[in-house]
Design a protein that fits this description.
The protein starts with a helix and ends in a 6-residue tail after the last helix. By secondary structure, it is an alpha+beta fold. Strand 1 and strand 2 form a beta hairpin. It has a single domain, classed as 2-Layer Sandwich (Phosphorylase Kinase, domain 1). The mean pLDDT is about 85. It is built from 4 helices and 6 strands. The protein has a 6-stranded antiparallel beta sheet with strand order 1-2-3-4-6-5.
């Protein structure tokens, strides 16, 4: 499964570019062609697609996240399995880069600088 080469997931999400990857999944910027918006598309790594326990954990993650509503937590819009068996979840896309990118560019921050930098981003529900 090469999601970038395939270009579309589940007939609905057009893959634009990779955003990042972790131990179990990759995240892509995609366009939801049904609702006309950009989403972060998290796709379970192909090597885990046949591990029932990991697939179930991925599904539970999507279901659990979908029940949460908080300004500091991205929303989950959809989950499913693509035509070729890739498990995915479509989430709210927030532009502006990741904390990992910020730290790579700016270096380690002191506790004071961290509080000041993120104060404006933290909101109470």
């Amino acid at each position: 499964m090469d999601i970038v080469r395939r270009g579309r997931v589940d007939g609905r999400y057009s893959v634009i570019e990779p955003l990042g990857e972790g131990g179990m999944a990759e995240v892509f910027l995609a366009r939801d062609e049904v609702l006309g918006r950009e989403v972060a598309l998290k796709v379970l790594n192909e090597r885990y697609a046949h591990d029932g326990e990991i697939v179930e954990r991925f599904r539970r993650e999507a279901q659990s996240m979908a029940t949460l509503s908080h300004p500091n937590i991205v929303s989950v819009f959809d989950q499913g399995t693509s035509e070729d068996g890739a498990y995915y979840m479509a989430m709210e896309y927030l532009s502006g880069g990741s904390l990992k990118d910020y730290l790579a560019d700016e270096g380690r921050l002191s506790p004071e600088a961290t509080i000041e930098r993120w104060r404006s981003r933290l909101r109470r529900p």
